[in-house]
Amino acid sequence: MSKKLMSLKAAALLASATLTMGVLGFISPAAAVVDCTKATANTNDCTVLTVNTFGDVIQPALVADYRKLRPDIKLSIKKSDLDALNGTGLFTQCAAGGAGNPDIAAVEISYSGFWRSYPQCFVDLRNLRNKDNKSANDIKKDYLPWRWEHGVGYNDSVIGIPTDVGGLEVAYRWDLFKKVGLPYKRDEVSKAWSTWPKFIEFGKKYVAKLTAAQKKANVGFIDNVGTIYPAVMNQGTEKYYRNNGTDQGQLIYKTNKQVKLAFDTTVAASNAKIGTRIGQFSSDWNVGMTKGTFAAMLAPAWMTSYIKGQSPTTKGKWDIASAPGGGGNMGGSQLTIPKGSKNQQEAWNFISWYLAPAQQLKVFEIYGLFPSTPSLYTNKAITVEKDPFFNNAPVGQIYATGVKKLKPIFEGKLQRCIDMAMGSAISLVANGKEKVPAKAFATGMAAAGKCK
Amino acid sequence: MSQTTVGKARASKPPSPWKPAKQPRKANNPNAVPSLNGRWGYMFIAPFFVMFLIFGLAPIIYSIYIAFFNWDALGTQEFIGLANFSELFIDTRFWNALINTLDIWLLSTIPMLIMSIGLAAVLHNPALRGSTFFRTILLVPNITSVLAIAIVFGQLFGRDFGMVNIIIGALGFEHIDFVQGTTSSHVAIASMIVWRWTGYNALIFLAAMLAIPNELYESASLDGAGKFKQFIYVTLPSLRNTITFVLIVGTIGGLQVFAEPLILGGSFNGGDSGQFSTLTLFLFEQAFVAYKWGYAASIGIMITVIVAIVSVINFYITRKIAGDGR
To answer: CB distance from A430 to chain B under 8 Å?
Structure first.
């Protein structure tokens, strides 16, 4: 009864509020207080911003903040679970001349090499100015230089602004390390695996201490050795392409020693049998994280929040050590305004607000995504913060040290295709289908040659 | 008065409603009904054909056109003649995908056919109570989202903590790494297809069984045929056309299996070494990872050709299996 009354009252209030809003809106639209998040709002006063995204690029808490800041904007967010589906949507829409494009689209970092060749698919963010009269050129200094490059087209136009940075370190189960008598304190661990060969040795020692039952249950040291390949690649200065100012870039993968090094390191880890060969994000992986099927995993900053969400019962048993070979990056995105966006001005207002240092700090505090704006790296929230989930590790400090070391790496047009070819070649060795690593490497190179 | 009218009408041959008299089409004839076979008929079927032209035929023709080009869909088109096709014929990934697809199709179609005919025979039994309930239930897998099915089955077939492997382990066998193996991954994918389509096809078979005249069964039992023999000699031959239909529709769908392997592997390469890469997955990978749209289009054309060939083979095999009819 009282509930019913309450809802009636609420409805009446709402109705009168709408009425007032409508009248006010009629008299002077500028002064009207509209709330476009409500279905009853007068839609003529609302600007609908459509956002296509994936995963956790756009965070709900910040969307709520923006609603308070700009009640006249209605954010219509479409989220794909797979970044690939998000990417193909953007691709086909550009091929169709921008028809059906959203106002804002998130672009995953592995697509940035491709989109760099087609800046004409995006609005040049240097030409837009937000309410503080700032264009992309004016905010460039706020971001990590190597991260900023991911959103720059070959003709120097700015097509995307970086979201978080996936600085790469290693998350490990200190309790399991301790159990088998290996170093388990983060400084000792970082020192013990300062290079990749040492990391593999460390893993071998861990696997050697496993019981027969554990081995039978496929327990291993690291979740999947395949993750080592991109990690080593990103520690170099060049990948498959060299920037020669053209839209495609110059292919150098055949001569770049970093490719061979990354391949050999991964194959060595595979042959040392330190991995569990569980696919990342599979159900086995999710469960294994809790059950200790693997004791270490390469963890970009965003992975820390994933671990927390996936295996809350392991709280305090994890710790974070530096990645072998020093730092690295995995993941991250850009927010772009595709050609065909109908609200470019409002889209830029939102992007420049959403990715500004203040908001990135909040995202770090709530969700653990690491900011791409170095001015925050000296902020107390990042330097002092200790994470009880990770055994009170100074998570922010560790990641900040890692990402500051990185240099810009040129991402070329067909990088995803070449990455996939090399990944398949590594699997040939890992699955025992090819015994000679050099032959697998040649197979990978031949497959990469078809990416053109 | 009324009598005379009737008499008059009789005298002048009453117009039958079933056989309309041929009337000369004259504009001033008040009785002229526009024939549905004429211009009006086209208007009624137009919505389908207009849609088909825009969303069916035009893309088909366009994809044949771009199969002759090297094109990434955004840049310039480079005419390369038949080079896409000649490259395709020596591309091991294509043949691998083709073999995988056919294997998955065989692994799914044969059990599905047997199981759905069996289910239909059970539902056909008049002694079965609540048959409407069971008929409805059979459709549930079919209306479930294929992504949901793939995610759940992917978990069931997990190597370490999947339910199937927990059972295998409890029976004292080694865990099977379904995703990494070639045949095992095909079995996993085929089981998703079987689960999804068996009930649906059972209903089609049931409908066909209900149409078989009872007299056939009666005379068969008079000749001394038991239930099983009746099934073999009466039911199966009568289902011949339905089996052909189910097989052809199943072939078209089965050779285009896409979502199941995509979700099982979580990427477009169909497993680390392409062990369950299918034709459509390979097509998609070429279009959206390698950005080779011309090449992807040529794969699409090859899929069409392959489906046509397999369907024709199916057609003749089912004719043979289900008896010559007469």
So the answer is: yes
